[in-house]
Structure formats: C-alpha cells, structure tokens
Amino acid sequence: MSKPLCIAILMGGPSLEHEVSLKSGEMVFRYLDRSKYEPVRVLIQKNGDWNIPAEEVKKICDCAFIAMHGTYGEDGTVQGILELHNIPYTGSNALSSALGMNKFLSLRVFQDGGLLIPPSILIHKGEWRTSHEETTKKIKHHIELPLVIKPNNQGSSFGVTIVKNEKKLKEALDEAFSFSREVLVEKFIEGREMTCAVLDHGWPESAFPLLPTEIIPRGGTFFDYKAKYSKEGSYEITPPQNISKSTMEKLKSTALAAHRLVGAGGFSRTDMILDKKGNVYILEINTIPGLTEESLLPKAASVSGIEFSRLLSLILESAFYRYGKKI
C-alpha cells in the first residue's frame, strides 16, 4: 500500500470568520480518509502568523486544503502565498477567488454571462464620508426601496441589512462601512432563498451541480450569521419542495454557470432568490463554502449521495488533477 499523502489543513486566519474556519478545519481533519491522507493542522492566527510556516508546509506536505472563509482565506490572499511557494491547494485559484469575493464585480460577470442579478450600485466609503446627502440621493436615483445594504467583500452576512424605509438607510450604511471600504446597494428581491453547490474534477467541463437547498430562516429574518451557524437558525430543505422540474433545473444551471463564469475550482456554492414569477436571481458565489456540521454544502452532498469523507476526497482529487499529480 502506498504511503498516505500529507495534507496541510489551513484554518483560522485574520478574518471575521476565524472561528467558523476553525470549525471547518476540524471537520476536515476529523473526516479526511486516513487510508489516503495524513492531515496536518496549519493554524493561521488572527495576526496572520502561521504555526507552521509556508516554507515548512512545502517540505512536509503534498497539498494544502484551504478551510478558510472570508478575507485572506477566500479572497486570493492565501492562494497567492501558496502559489508563491509552489504548494498545490484546493479550491479556486487566486484570481477566481478574488473575483468571487468581490460581490459587485462578480455580479457584473454573471450579468454579462446572461444570468439575472438584482439592480445594484457600489458606494465607496470616501463618498459617504464626503456627503451623506449626495450619496443618499445617488442610491434613491438608482435603487428603489426596499433594498439591501451589504459589505462588498465579506462573507457570512456580516454587516448586511434589509432597508425598508429611508430612515434606516444611514444606520445600515454606517454598519456596512464598519466592515468594508466598499458597500453594495442592491434591490431587495422578494422570494424564496435558494442555494446550490457545484463540484468539479479539476477542469471546467467536469463541473456538476448538487441538489439545490431552500433556506427558510426561523423567525422570518434573512439568512444572517446566526441563522447560518446555529443548529436551530433555519430550516434547510434539500431538495426544495413545491417547485417544478424546470425550476429545479434552472437553479442547478444557474449555479453551474456561476461556477464556470468566475473560473471556480473544486467546489463552490451559489446563493439565489427564486421570485414569485419563477425568475432566478443570483446574489453571490462562495468559492470556499463552510464545512462545519451546520454548513449547507456537506448537507446537500449527503442528500445527493456523497458522504462527507468522500466529499473531501473529491475536493482533493480535483486539486491534484489541476496540478497534474496522480493519486
């Protein structure tokens, strides 16, 4: 029997999603197939320090499994560090990661690719500081209430507010700007919240969608941080009920198109809204979806017949194929 491959599991990082990343990393460590892989924890502190420097990771491990979310881990930064040291890694490359993390730019790519997106504009912190009044006028000119305010480059719904009246606009913008220098303002699309994960075997044509999931937050709120990471935060129904076969295929094809349009690799998860007319609006793509016990990707994979250990192996096999390594 061949020797198990050493896998460096990168977790933590200087992100608001540090704790979630630790949970994802521990799940990967626990469920990685020990007959194929020998996992090594690589903890990245909130200040950016690695407990095992990248130079050492290069010497001892065959591949890095990135179990990091948000800035640094999902925006191309850690991917760039790994590329600098010629260390193979899971998931999307640095450019695709950066594009996926930038909500405004990725929405433009999706729109150019023929997908429906909510009307949206980007507001910079400088223009908000210069004149609240002019910025408010700009928003009202382009986007009708109700609308959604969100940081342009954060995950896990940090700083996201649904604004139903103008009185809440300033508070929502201040909140979002506390997380980012750029804020996305988009039209609120009323409908059912859907998400769909996509996997691939290492090349774009091999990508395939899993069964979509409908997300129904408890208490009637949107899918915020608490709803995402608490066990009782939301109802998650895979596959969605009471939708037509054609709508199901539309959800899957939208997620697949999003995966390919940003050049995602290995895995991704796309969030969408299904409106009352049956239109599918794409909201954003996650190039490193959560891998915790509460996360949507592992649950959808399980319902699709892919248990967690096999899911992790598929993600690693995709990375090895992309780097031309046989396992």
Give an account of the 3D structure:
With 327 residues, the chain is α+β, with helices and mostly antiparallel strands. The protein has three domains: 5-90, Rossmann fold; 99-116 and 190-322, D-amino Acid Aminotransferase, Chain A, domain 1 (2-Layer Sandwich); 120-187, Dna Ligase, domain 1 (2-Layer Sandwich). The chain contains twelve helices and 13 strands. Strands 8, 9, 10, 11, 12 and 13 form a six-stranded antiparallel sheet that branches. The mean pLDDT is 93.
- Terminal Cα separation, in Å? 12 Å
- The CATH class label of the largest domain is Alpha Beta
Low-confidence stretches: none
What share of residues is helical?
Answer: 25-40%
CATH architecture classification name of the largest domain: 2-Layer Sandwich
Structural descriptors:
single chain, 6-stranded antiparallel β-sheet, alpha+beta, 4-stranded antiparallel β-sheet, 36% helix
